[in-house]
Every structure is written in C-alpha cells, then in structure tokens.
Write a structure and sequence with these properties.
Layout: H1 3-19, H2 26-29, H3 35-51, E1 56-62, H4 66-72, E2 78-83, E3 87-88, E4 93-94, E5 105-114, H5 125-131, E6 132-142, H6 153-158, E7 163-168, E8 184-189, E9 192-198, H7 206-218, E10 229-234, E11 239-240, E12 246-251, E13 255-261
Parallel strand pairs: 1-10, 3-7, 4-13
Antiparallel strand pairs: 1-2, 5-6, 5-10, 5-11, 6-7, 8-9, 8-12, 12-13
Helix pairs in contact: 1-3, 5-7
C-alpha cells in the first residue's frame, strides 16, 4: 500500500475519533490490506494525535484472552499505544462525550510499570519480571472507531488496537512473590458481581504477553521503555459501558480500581 493511501486511512480514523463518528471497516473498501499495512495506518493515526500534543506513555496488548477473541472474532493478539490523554484518575467519573468515546467496553487487566527497557527480539518472561517495577490493577476502556465493532484483525490493529482510555489503581505492588498465572481479578458493575478471571487468561501468563509484545515491537524497532505503562490484556470478557454505569475491580493481594460513566 502506498504512503498516500496509508495516510488517507489514518486520517479517516483520526476524524472518526475527533468527530465521534464511526466509520465502516477499512477492509470493506480495501480488502487487500495486510497486517503490516494496518500497523502503518496505526502509526499514522498516532502521529496525528501526537501533532495535537498527545504524548506516548506506554503500550497495550489486545485480544490476548480466549473470551475476548471469541467475542470479537479476532484470534491473534495485537498492540497499540497509550497516550497521556487516554489516562484518567482512579475513581473518576468519565463524560463519554467529553472523552471522544464512541462504543466503550470495560475490561479488567494487570498493568506493568517498567523500570528497565525491553528490546526484542529474544525477550523472555524472566526478562519482563526483572524489568518490572510494579504491577497495578487496571481498567482499560476499549473502544472502536469502526461501526458496530465490525472488526477483524486488520481493522483493530489499524485502530490502535481498539484502545479508548484507561485507569490505573492507586496500589503499585512489586510483582516478585506473586504467582501471576493464578492472580485473580473480580469485577463488579453497578455494585453487582459481574465476572472473574485469572492471569493465565492472557497467553498463559501476563509475563508471556508482555514478552510477546516486546518481541513483536522489536521487529518494528520499537522498544518498551523504562517508565512506560504496559497493559497486558483482559482477564475477563468485555462489558459494554453506558452513561450511569460504574465498574470496580479487585486484583487479589494487589489492590482495587474503579471508574464510572456519565
């Protein structure tokens, strides 16, 4: 795909975000798009946001767990970028219209705060653990600029891995001494129990997921950097979020996190 075509599709996604107007799937008009094309479109989309003053503060892994893959019909992980304007405070009430959200869904994750760089390829789980300063309970509010979540792997990659906003809990805990594979999260919606999951839901372990991300980004010469926030993927099925909804999660032995919508 030519650079001008990539730029045009990046502009479409950017306009959809800013105008809060979803667009048809990109593959509907460009059926020959490849995964490499999709990542190039994602980077163009990101550059437009950076020109608005947004700053990259981390990365996210998407579509890592079987429940999420089955819900979306996407059966391989992908990645996107986190910016400072995507982060909201723990316990915040989010104005859906004011945050450019179109079709938000909540997912509970384990976030990693890095103290060292991870430059793939060749990164293993032990490298991830050594480079991690803390793990944090996290809600990622995924969103899609594609109409009615009609996404496959190409469209979700191009659309910054369907990332909307995210919130980190106040408790930052050293991961050493935790069995991250069996670390359990419980999620509550509007005060009622909603779902639960464990760390093994994301590629067998959140450490495996972050190692995958470091190695995949390494192919594009993009490192995971010290100080960055890395979202390792949802432990539970996605849940639609509407004005009036509130969500709370408890990550066993680590802490809590909450977000509400207006």
């Amino acid at each position: 795909m030519s650079s001008s075509e990539i730029s045009a599709l990046g502009e479409k996604l950017y306009t959809a975000l800013r105008n809060r107007t979803p667009i048809p799937p990109l593959v509907a008009s460009h059926p020959t798009l490849t995964i490499d094309d999709a990542y190039a479109i994602s980077l163009d989309f990101l550059k437009r946001r950076e020109r608005d003053g947004e700053k990259v503060i981390g990365k996210k892994i998407g579509v890592t767990s079987k429940p999420v893959q089955e819900m979306l019909g996407v059966f391989q992980p992908d990645f996107g970028f986190l910016t400072d304007r995507m982060q909201v405070e723990d316990g915040a009430t989010v104005d859906v219209l004011g945050t450019n959200l179109l079709q938000p869904r909540a997912e509970a994750e384990i976030a990693f705060i890095l103290k060292g760089d991870l430059n793939g390829p060749g990164i293993h789980e032990d490298d991830v653990l050594a480079a991690t300063e803390a793990i944090v309970p996290c809600f990622e509010i995924v969103d899609s600029r594609i109409e009615d979540w009609q996404i496959g792997i190409i469209d979700t990659i191009a659309d910054n891995a369907s990332c909307g906003i995210f919130v980190l809990g106040k408790d930052h805990v050293d991961p050493k001494g935790f069995d991250l594979t069996n670390l359990e999260v419980q999620v509550f919606k509007n005060g009622d129990f909603l779902s639960k999951g464990v760390g093994s839901a994301v590629q067998g372990s959140p450490l495996t997921a972050v190692a995958w991300l470091a190695n995949t980004l390494g192919r594009y010469e993009v490192p995971l950097k010290a100080g960055e926030i890395i979202l390792s993927g949802s432990l539970v099925p996605l849940e639609p979020a509407s004005p009036g909804d509130s969500f709370e999660m408890e990550l066993g032995g680590v802490g809590r996190c909450s977000i509400s919508f207006a």
